[in-house]
Write a structure and sequence with these properties.
Length: about 280
């Protein structure tokens, strides 16, 4: 297949070659899916990095909605037959790509925190959020938090490092609708979801994303972080606020829309926790 040849020859990945065309993407996936329904040759398999082979037929693939507010934006995914909730590959440009390849780039310009703009980048965000965090790198046994698929309107940045997407953060804009049906808008910019892949944790990346958020909204006298804040993220906030005393009065843990009755000072909470530990 054409795309497979290109992939093999030049280390090209979907995010580098996808057109910004969710509709065309969905139509191509639907057309391919229809051919699966007609019965596929026995040789049609996808090899997992573990060496295991997954047969490509209608029972092993399904459509996923990339954005929670845009049901038309769908991608076709292949699931692990032993665990049908785990996505192992995505169909794009005429072939299947492992989820790790979907997260890769061969574009050296993709490095550091970059705004999500194209549909290809939205797919990367979806895979990081729903597949990697939601399924593979979350503690499924305890009640660890997870995030819903993001809204198309949500501002997001992906963190690129050494040719792969390793984290993201998203923000709610001041004035943006809370989506609770009341028509209320956020009264301050809010750091809403954040994730760093396990293999890249404790290298200062969470801290870098929080710093980037605070710098992006420099002119605002109050900034929110969505409640509930995870224990690890509290530690990130603590380290940040110890190093940046000027930000202590600005950061609030907020429930939407973030009005006075819906916010608690993060620095105050950290101080209280510290005091209770000393007691
Ligand atoms: C929270 C999260 C984004 C932090 O990312 P990270 O890149 O590991 O954070 P950093 O490396 O920047 O951490 C900065 C400091 O915070 C503290 N810290 C971070 N994670 C910690 C943890 N699990 N336990 C204790 N302290 C922690 C440390 O002081 C660390 O500095 P150090 O490594 O020099 O000691 C990451 O753990 C994650 O993705 N968790 C799952 C999703 C999540 O909880 N999101 C937050 C929702 S509110």
């Amino acid at each position: 297949m054409e795309a497979e040849a290109a992939r093999g020859a030049a280390g090209i990945y979907p995010v580098d070659i996808l057109e910004d065309d969710p509709e065309g993407f969905r139509e191509a996936a639907l057309a391919y899916y229809a051919t699966l329904g007609e019965g596929t040759p026995a040789s049609s398999v996808f090899s997992l990095p573990t060496g295991e082979q997954v047969k490509l037929d209608a029972s092993s693939v399904c459509f996923c909605t990339v954005h929670r507010d845009e049901p038309q934006h769908k991608i076709l995914v292949l699931v692990n037959p032993q665990d049908t909730k785990t996505v192992v590959a995505v169909y794009a440009k005429g072939c299947w790509w492992s989820t790790e390849d979907v997260l890769r780039t061969s574009d050296p310009a993709r490095e550091g925190l970059m705004k999500v703009q194209s549909f290809g980048e939205r797919i990367v965000l979806f895979i990081l959020n729903v597949v990697i965090f939601g399924r593979l790198e979350r503690n499924l046994d305890d009640d660890d938090m997870f995030f819903l698929p993001h809204s198309l309107k949500e501002q997001a940045k992906i963190l690129w490092k050494n040719g792969a997407a390793v984290g993201f953060y998203t923000t709610k804009a001041k004035g943006g609708l809370c989506g609770d049906g009341t028509g209320a808008g956020y009264v301050l910019p809010v750091f809403d979801t954040v994730f760093v892949r396990r293999k890249c944790r404790r290298q200062g990346l969470g801290l870098a994303m929080l710093r980037d958020f605070c710098e992006t909204f420099q002119g605002h006298e109050a900034l929110g972080i969505s409640c509930p804040i995870s224990p690890a993220m509290y530690q990130v906030c603590r380290k940040f606020l110890v190093a940046h005393p000027e930000e202590r009065g600005r950061l609030w843990e907020v429930e939407p829309p973030g009005a006075w009755g819906q916010r608690v000072s993060i620095w105050l909470k950290i101080q209280l926790q510290h005091a209770s530990l000393l007691d």
